[in-house]
Design a protein that fits this description.
By secondary structure, this protein is α/β, with parallel strands linked by helices. The chain is 32% helix and 21% strand. The protein folds into 2 domains: 5-46 and 105-299, TIM Barrel; 49-104, Alpha-Beta Plaits (2-Layer Sandwich). The chain is built from 11 helices and 14 strands. Helix 3 (110-118) packs parallel to helix 5 (142-154).
Length: 300
């Protein structure tokens, strides 16, 4: 366990939206889906990435002095970062006092992650909280995920697994005795629309949700509400019909926002986020009522 590690983003401490109580959330990089509205594009790749946040740059050019790959060019008073030239030495982040260069993803061992989690164990006990493994998709680095979950259970810490369920069912089977609650995103009920929106069909996801339900797992469904993508009444009714056949604790509705658009720019990734306003309160209420009509416990 000491040598087992994963590429992770910075953990989030005192999280209150990633399961019950106060939690520490670990974000494990790598995801099999490519959702158009992904608000954590830095979590899609399993490899470390470096971002250039241009508005923070003071044009001091210290990054260019330490870069052996000629990735940092200063022309006409402007800093241009060539991502294709970057060799991931990460030296530029070390010298950037303004934090214009940012690394997404560092190797963390199971022991290191456990130690971080244990620092807040008193808060977990007082609030009924614990630790959430999120991503990306934590089961893309499943050996690490299983080891960390097991270590947390040995310390009697409540565990949550935030998963898209587009994984091999055997990985879910192995996670069952180690996970107190599964937080599962459900994007769209129609397989072809799901493919258009995420890059993959939803058959495996539905099968895995059925598997978790059949095995009496505690499940919280999370539905991102993205206008013009998955908020139409037909999809909401089909979603309600399907979820009503499962053993679901709660259904949480999440409002779309485009605040992550700048991340795509800083990472030099294609911006796929839909150009649309967040769902209105009226839309959310209507969707909630439809889902409740199928006997689902809906939270907004």
């Amino acid at each position: 366990m000491e040598k087992l590690s994963a590429i992770m983003l910075a953990p989030k401490r005192f999280a209150v939206h990633d399961g019950p109580g106060i939690r520490t959330t670990f974000f494990i990089k790598g995801c099999p889906l490519k959702c158009l509205w992904c608000h954590n594009p830095e979590s899609i790749s399993s490899a470390p990435q470096i971002a250039f946040i241009e508005h923070k740059c003071s044009n001091c050019a210290e990054c260019a002095e330490v870069c052996a790959a000629n990735a940092h060019i200063f022309e006409n008073g402007r800093h241009i970062f060539h991502h294709k030239n970057c060799i991931q030495c990460m030296k530029c982040e070390n010298v950037c006092s303004n934090k214009a260069m940012k690394i997404y993803g560092r190797k963390i061992s199971v022991c290191e992650a456990l130690q971080i989690a244990l620092e807040d164990i008193d808060f977990y006990k007082e609030s009924g909280g614990g630790v959430t493994l999120s991503g990306g998709e934590p089961l893309t680095q499943s050996e690490f995920t299983f080891a960390l979950l097991a270590a947390l259970k040995e310390k009697s810490i409540h565990t949550a697994l935030d998963t898209c369920c587009f994984v091999q069912q055997e990985k879910l089977r192995q996670s069952l005795p180690l996970t107190d609650i599964f937080l599962v995103d459900f994007k769209h009920a129609n397989p072809e629309m799901h493919r258009k929106l995420t890059g993959q069909s939803n058959e495996i996801i539905k099968q895995n949700l059925q598997f978790l339900s059949d095995n009496n797992a505690k499940i919280e469904i999370r539905i991102p509400l993205v206008p013009n993508c998955n908020t139409d009444n037909v999809n909401i009714h089909e979603t309600g019909k399907f979820l009503s056949t499962l053993n679901i604790e709660t259904v949480k509705l999440l409002s779309y926002h485009s605040m992550a658009r700048s991340k795509y720019v800083s990472l030099n990734m294609p911006d796929t986020m839909p150009i649309t306003a967040p769902p209105s309160n009226e839309m959310i209420a209507e969707i909630s009522d439809i889902l409740k009509s199928y006997g689902l416990n809906v939270k907004i």
